[in-house]
Amino acid sequence: MKKVIMDVDTGVDDALAILYALESRQLDVLGITTVNGNVPLEMVNVNTLKILSLAGREEIPVQPGADRPLLRESEHVHHIHGDDGIGNALDGFEHNNQCEAQFAADFIIEQAKNHPGEITLIAVGPLTNLALAFRKEPNLSKWLSEVVIMGGLVSEAGRGNKLPNSEFNIFTDAEAARIVFHSGAETTLVSLDVTKQTLLSSYDVEVLEGRKYHDFVRQSTEVYRAFSKERFNLDGCALHDPLTVGYVLNRDFLKTEKHYVDVETISPLGYGQTICDFGGLLGKEPNVTICTDVDGEAFVAHFLETLGKEG
Question: Signal peptide: which range, if any (predicted)?
């Protein structure tokens, strides 16, 4: 099985991504690192522990990471993910697992050093932990097999979800994202351009009726789906983070190209924008693989099939 570390800011779609990764039975999840993002770090930690307990995978270690961006103040999105970050779907849920003492960036470095060339790092939150790890250990980019990131917007200008040209994960810590993009690691960006084409509708949720995760998926996505309906008039919520896991499971879900990508960190109108040099105007070597198209129907079907497995 492919060895992975998941770096998360566990809101609703992070939770679904974790369950998708675990239930795929194709990934050896060495650990989950947490980062401030959708909700404060303390909530991220609890949500992650609860999801692992729900899945019966309490043996997977959880390493807490950065509780704030490198330079900016924290911003959270409770209006999308609910008061606790997962739509209060696990209120009162008992869990016995606890976070580890090791800091997230140190765990990433340690595991990559112990398994050189074997680990895929799946990052579905702000990139603060990764930036700290790359800054601390110059060899990390060589030790990691690849970094697959949910973030950014490369070709749909004006259709961001934080600023017109900016996506939330990159916006939350653009300085960190810039460090990661220029780290030399093999990097793939699964951006809003494709993730917004993967909607989980109320009908899709009911496909899981009678299965283990039906109640959690229905309850956790209620506020998320309501937000999508109000803001975008969409019947469903985008599976941003699960699609990032989906790419690791099956590259055929997405079409990709490699280009030079940089991050805007100065302009107040464009902070966090991921700028892709499609025409090679900057004369820079390509550093990021971007996603240009997605088979959304096939991916959503696989996601539902995976979460609906028996036993």
Answer: none
Distance CA 306, CA 275 (A): 34
Residue with tokens 């239930």: 23
Strands (E), 98-234: 119-123, 146-150, 187-190, 199-200
Would the pLDDT of 234 be above 80?
no
Residue 196 has pLDDT above 70, yes or no: yes
Residue 61: alpha-carbon gap to chain centroid: 18
Distances in Å between the Cα of 276 and the Cα atoms of 9, 283, 309 are 25, 12, 39
Q: Give dist(CA 66, CA 129) in Å, integer.
A: 6
Cβ-contact 123, 147 below 8 angstroms: yes
> pTM value?
0.97
Q: What is the mean pLDDT of the chain?
A: 95
Contact criterion met (CB below 8 Å) for 200 and 237 = yes
3-state helix, strand, coil in the chain (%, to 5): 40, 20, 40
In the chain the domains, ranked by start, together with CATH numbers, are: 2-307 (3.90.245.10)
Residue numbers annotated as active site: 240
